[in-house]
Each structure stands twice: as structure tokens, then as C-alpha cells.
Amino acid sequence: MSDAEQRMSALNSGLAGTGYICGDDVTTAVYLAQALEKPVLVEGPPGVGKTELARAMASVTGRQLLRLQSYEGLDEGRALYEWKYGKQLLYTQVLRNRLGALLADTEDLDAAVGRLDGLGGGFFSEPFLDARPLLQALRAEQGAVLLIDEVDKSDPEFEAFLLEFLADFQVTIPEFGTVEATTAPLVFLTSNASRELSDALKRRCLHLHIPYPDRALERRILEQRVPDLGERLREEVVAFVHGLRELDLRKRPAISETLDWARTLVLLQAERLDADVVRRTLNVLLKFQDDVELATPRIREIQARQR
Amino acid sequence: MNHLLTEFVQLLRGARIDIGPVQTADAARALAAVGVTDRERVRRALAATLVKSQDQRATFDACFDRYFQVAGMPAAAEADDDAATDDATPEGDASTASPAAMPVSGGGLVRELESGDTAAVEARLAEAMAEADVASARHWTQTGVMTQRVRQALDLQAVDDAIRDRRAAGQAADQLAAGRAALDRRIRARVDQRVRLQAEAQAWTFRDRVLRQTPLSALDRRDQARMRELVQRLARRLAARHGRRRRRRDRGTLDARGTLRASLRWGGVPFRPQWKSRRRDRARVVVLCDVSQSVRGQAAVLLPFMHALQDVLPEVHSFVFASEPVDVTALFQRHHPAQAMEEALARYGNGSTDYGGTLARFDAVTDRLIQRQTTVVILGDGRNNYGDPGLPALERIAGRARELIWLNPEPERSWGTGDSEMPAYARRCTEALRCRTLRDLEWAVMELLRRTA
To answer: Cα(A24)–Cα(A31) distance, rounded to whole angstroms?
Structure first.
């Protein structure tokens, strides 16, 4: 077994140890992200564990997880840093007298300004800086795991802003100069492909697509996450969900739905998966009434086919 | 390895996967990080660095499978091939005339062929293929030329000379001759495979270009799948570009009242200026599409296209008609566009075209739907079998809508000939555009996006 191979399999079992079971594609991408110090763009249908991957990596590497949820209108102020305006204002008020005394003996305005400048950064210095996730990630001593969630929801402008950050792990703050990462953070960007991301961004990232899991993988995930579910029931659950995914649904059930459903079945103390139980709990798996209506009459059919 | 990688990247580029030099460098680093001993691991590492979206993955896999078969990575087929060549070398000769007993002439290749050192010959072949620049071939007719070039690069002439010399001197040369024949077969197979790979990738790019200029009605079944893919790509591109444009228009003016209100937090100092952002009324696009025999080809492209644009076009409603308009919006929301289209055509596509009746009905049912913010798009050839053209109804629709765009698959010069009512229709529309090819359609949709923004 080669060195790289060993480290990758260690990574895979490490992830499994935190409850995140994944295939080789995922392990390779994450391993490369560490080796090449490049961000990973994780794509895939909702609910297959994109966000979860970052969380698992944080606990495997023992690094701090910083999360930045993207939305339309997200700007640098929310993502990178902001000045603590309130504190600045409060301090200028409180310190008004001291400042007055300090500047009392200056002759003219120029001299006063000169003296203020001599005080160091003053109100635009470290204590007044409110670091947001991106800056926190750069400054973390031990390195951090940075999760930029649903990056496709942000504006193209924000995406452009991310480019500098992702390429060199550094940002430029006008008042401060350039801040470089002490340890390169492990960056995950997730996308549900609601908007085509720019090529420039994609070029800077490793690409990872997490599809719906195959049966074996889903079985292992269920085994790990919902151990109370009996073996036979687990088999039936996986088979049924896979049958359901073949239907023309608006929102196909993903792993998170399978897990919810499995937990529901445990709670209901279901012994086996008969059509009645399925019908009563189908709304855990399917999130649209259309889908429920489409699937309900075909429950028996799906079960028969998967057997 | 680096040579293999750059050639592989060339191949991917040919197959329409854009890869920048930085990505190639990343791929090289990735390979160094994971090692090259395991084929699947190499595949995963290359995929992570070179592929940018999931729809490229299938193409990537196909290229990978074939390229790394040809180029001699540890693939099973490769090993078989070598074994076969070894068997072809007559063993008997080797024992009777041991290589050491013979005077060696003709250089390294002769020696390697005689001793059956396939690995060394293989390395030479790979080198010669690179030297002959086989990767630059663009068409299968170049196979012959390329083969000749590789032969020259390998200096097969020297081997032939050596065989002739030995035979003239009465020495055994059968083993060498057999080795040479086997090598020649291998050269031809290799070059052929490589050129074919290359030419195929080229052909796709070329075919796409042609497809965009082919009349939509002339597409045959085989092209239609390809066309759908093209339409999807186009729609996504337009969506991406358009999404950007809309944002840019949104900012600009200072919201004085808002700024004042916000400044109260900081003792009246306007720390944070507020900007006006206009909330637009939800614009709407209503498509009325002729699905009778004559315009089918275009309809089959336009409707799925409009729905693929759903992300940027605020709200798309579609109607199809032959003799009377039917609302198919729900159909398109429920099903995959291609499937919905097929169903719409099968269900409503029969019957003769009646523009007069259709427009009158359309006017009546869209009374609520078409309003000040609505853009109406009509796709049809305007050929009405000399019936009532229904101009008053069209005028009413045009009056209610913000604009009315007519897309006609016929070229302008035939508008107005025979039973075509097109000139009269065109006068009542904000714009009448020709929409014969995908390129026309792309242009028309760009226009539409600009207007609905």
C-alpha cells in the first residue's frame, strides 16, 4: 500500500468515525484539497450531505468550523470584516474629554491631526475590527475549516470578490493592508446549481459531485446513523427509497430524508415495511403534495419491483 | 507522465471541456499527490482537478477510458496486446540463432526487436508518436500520413536495411523480420486509434457549429438529442449572462430618507448610505406556439427553450394551437421539457391551422393574463389557408401587452406570398423576427431578455 493510499484510507475511516460514510470520490477530493491547498466546490442534489462533509472534516482535523451562509445581497461587510461602529462612536463620546485634553496644547489643526495620527490606528485598529468568517478563517492559528454554503445564492459580485480569497488565501483590507493565512484553511463551497457559477470560480476549485448514494453506501450510512433499525427493515427502506428515486418527482428523497424516515420508522416501532406504514409516513420522504399524490398509488408496485 | 497529461488535456479540450493551464498544473500536482499506480485513483484525481461541472463528467470518463487505453497506462487491454505480440515472435528461431552469436547492425531498435524487448520498443513507439505529432491530426484521412511519419521517426528503414544485409550475407533474419512486421502492425493500430479519437472530438465541435445554422425543421431524429443538449447549454449561458445584467441595473440612486433614518443609530452621522432598489413588477412572458405540421420543428425547440429559461424569465405561460389555443404551462412544469413537448404535439398538434379563431379565443382566455407587464411571443408561419386572419383580436392583444413579438420560421422574402398573412401581422407587432435556425432563435431570445429586464 503506497503512502498516499494509506493516508486516503485513514481519512476515509476518520470520516466514518465521525459518522460520515462516503465513497472514494469524496475521499480523493478532500485528500487533494489538503495536499494542494485548494478549495473544493461540492455540488449535488440537496440533502446528500454536502454541508455535513465540512462538519465531518472539521471534527476529523480538529479544526474550528466557520460557516458562511450565502444569500442574495451578501456583501464583504458580512463575509469579511466590519468596523464596530457602535463601539467606535461610544468610545469617541466617552473619550471626548481625554481627547480634548490631549489636543489642548496643539497650536493649529495640522498639529492636532498630527498628534492623533501618532496614536497608532486609533479607532480603526484591531479592537474595533469585527472579523467575519472569511477573516476569521485566515487568522485561525491552527487553520480552520471554512464552509461557504450555497454559494450559488450569492451575487456574481460576491463571487468575484471570493476569487482573490480562494486563489491565494489572502484578502486586502484598505485600512490594514493584505492579510495572509497563517495556515491555509480547508475551504468547502457548496452549490445546488440554482445558478451557473462563473468559470473563474470553478477553475480555482476542485470539483466534487456527490450523487445520490448507491444501495451499499446508503445501507452503510443507515447502519451507522440509525443503528436501531433492524437489518431487514433497513434493507427494505433502502430498496424502497431507491425505487422512489426512479419516479419522476419534483424533489427526490436524498440521504437526509432517508435518515428522517428511518428514524420515524424506529419511533413508530414498525416491524416491517407494509404499504400502510409507507402511506402514513410518506410525507417524511416527499416534500411536495404533488409527489405524494404521484407516489401513493404506486407504493405496492415499487415494493414489488424492488424485491 | 507530463507529456501524457498535456495530450490528455488536449483531447478533453477537443471534447469541449475547457481547461486552463493552471488546472493542468493542478492536475499534475494532484497526480504527484496520489501516485499513478492505481488507474481509478488517477481517474478520480484528474476528475477533481479538470472537470468543472457534473455534465462534463460523462465526457471526461469516456475520454479517460479511451485515452489511457491507447497511451499505455496500466490497462488490461494493453497487457493482452503485448502478450499477443510476444507469442507472434517465433520462439524456435530464438533458440537456434542466439542473439549474442550475431553481429549486431542497424542500431538499438534492431537489437530490441531481436531480443523481444517489448517494453523498450513500446517506449520508442510512444516517443515516435510524439515526435510525429500524431495528436495534431484532425481527420481520419490523415491516418496514412501519420503512420508514415511514425515509421520515419522510428527509422524502420534502418531495420529493413539490416534485414536485407543479413540475408545477403546468408545470416538468419527471420526473427528480426517477424519483429518488424509485428511492430508495423502495432504502429498502424496505434496511429489509427489515436487519430480516430482526435477526429471524433473535432467532429463534435464542427457538428455543433453546423447544427446551429441548420433550419430547425430540417433536423432529423439523430440530431434532435444533440440539439436538445445544445439548447440547454444555450439557455444556461443566456441565463447566467442575463442574471448578471439585471443586477447591475438595480443600483444607483441614493435613498435620502432611508439614509437619514439609518443615520439615527450613529447620532445623525450618515455612516451607511442607503440605496434605492426598485422592486420590479413581476414581468411575464406568454408564448403562443403553432404546433401544426408546418412549424413543428421550431415549436419543438422554442417551447422547451423558453421553459429552460424559467430561471431568468420571471413567469412563462405557454399555449399551443393548431385550430384552437390550449394552455400547456402545467404540462411543462410537471414533466421534462422534451417529454412535455412530445405530449403536447401528440395531443394538440392535429387539425388545420386557424389563426382567426385561435387569436380570438386566445384574446378571450388571456384577458387577465396579458397585462401591462406582459410580453407576448407568437411562433407561427402566419399561413392561414386563406381564412379570416383575426387582425382585430391581434390588435387587442397588442394593445394590452407591453409588447408583442412574432417569430416566423420562414425567411422574410416569402412573407406575404400565397396564403401568408405575415405582413399584416407584422405591422401590428412590436417586432417580427425570422426564426429559422437555432442562431436566429438565440438572437430572438436575447432580444426578449433585454426587453423583459
So the answer is: 10
CB nearest to A2's CB, from B20, B30, B37: B37
**Which residue among B29, B33, B243 sits closest to A195, beta carbon to beta carbon?**
B243
Give me the pLDDT at residue B70, please. Answer: 55
Mean pLDDT of chain B: 75
Beta bridge mates, B378: B288, B406
- ipTM of the complex as predicted: 0.82
CATH of the domain at A33: 3.40.50.300
pLDDT at A178: 84
Answer for the pair B411, B385: CB distance below 8 angstroms, yes or no.
Answer: no
Contact A195 B311 (CB under 8 A): yes
Nearest by CB to residue A32, choosing from B23, B33, B54, is B33
Q: Which of B361, B407, B411 is nearest to B380 (CA)?
A: B407
* Per-residue pLDDT reduced to its tens digit, A266-288: 999 888 888 888 888 999 999 88
Cell digits for A253? 428523497
CB contact under 8 A, B239 and A208: no
CA distance A203 to chain B (A): 7
Same domain, A95 and A117: yes
Report the alpha-carbon distance of residue B392 to residue B110 in Å, rounded: 89
Q: Are residues A96 and A45 part of one domain?
A: no
* Residue ranges of chain B assigned to CATH 3.40.50.410: 230-251+282-452
Bridge pairing between strands A186-191 and B316-321: unpaired
For B41, the closest chain A residue by CA position comes to A28
How confident is the model over A7-16, as pLDDT tens digits? 889 999 999 9
One-letter amino acid at A225 equals R
In the predicted structure, residue B356 carries a pLDDT above the cut 70 = yes
Q: Tell me which of B36, B43, B54, B343 to substitute to probe the interface with A (most A C-beta atoms closer than 10 Å).
A: B54
Same domain, A66 and A199: yes
What confidence tier does B298 reach under pLDDT thresholds 50, 70, 90?
A: confident
Find chain B residues with C-beta within 8 A of A87's C-beta. Answer: none
Residue whose cell numbers read 505480440? B85
Q: Does B35 contact A206 at a Cβ distance shorter than 8 Å?
A: no
Under CATH, domain B230-251+282-452 is a member of which superfamily?
Answer: von Willebrand factor, type A domain (3.40.50.410)
What pLDDT, on a 0 to 100 scale, did the predictor assign at position B219?
58
Q: Which residues of B touch A (CB under 8 A)?
A: 18, 20, 22-23, 26, 29-30, 33-35, 37-38, 40-41, 44-45, 47-49, 51-54, 57, 236-237, 239-240, 243-244, 247, 265-267, 269, 271, 311, 334-336
Q: Which pLDDT does position B89 carry in this prediction?
A: 38
User: Is residue A107's pLDDT more than 70?
Assistant: yes
- How does DSSP classify residue B437? B
Examine the fold and report which residue of A175, A193, A209 is the final residue of a domain before the chain moves on: A209
The yes-or-no verdict on residue B178 having pLDDT over 60 is yes
Are residues A267 and A145 part of one domain? no
Half-sphere exposure of B148 (CA within 13 A, CB side): 5
Record: contact B35-A4, CB cut-off 8 A = yes
Shared domain for A20 and A69, answered yes or no, is yes
The number of distinct structural domains making up chain A is: 3
Q: Which range marks the domain in which residue A91 is found?
A: 83-128
More confident position, A192 or A69: A69
Contact A35 B30 (CB under 8 A): yes
Domain shared by A191 and A119, yes or no = no
| DSSP letter assigned to residue B73 | S
Whether B33 sits inside 8 A of A157 (CB atoms) is no
Partner residue opposite B41 with nearest CB, options A28, A85, A202: A28
Q: For all residues of chain A together, what is the average pLDDT?
A: 86
Q: What is the distance in angstroms between the Cα of B219 and the nearest Cα belonging to chain A?
A: 28
> Per residue in B29-81, pLDDT tens?
999 988 888 888 899 999 999 988 877 888 888 888 878 765 544 433 333 34
- Record: contact B30-A209, CB cut-off 8 A: no
The pLDDT score that the predictor gives to residue B76 is 37
Q: Please report residues of B whose CB lies closer than 8 A to that of A196.
A: 236-237, 239-240
Q: Exposed/middle/buried for B422, CB within 10 Å: 0-12, 13-18, 19+?
A: buried
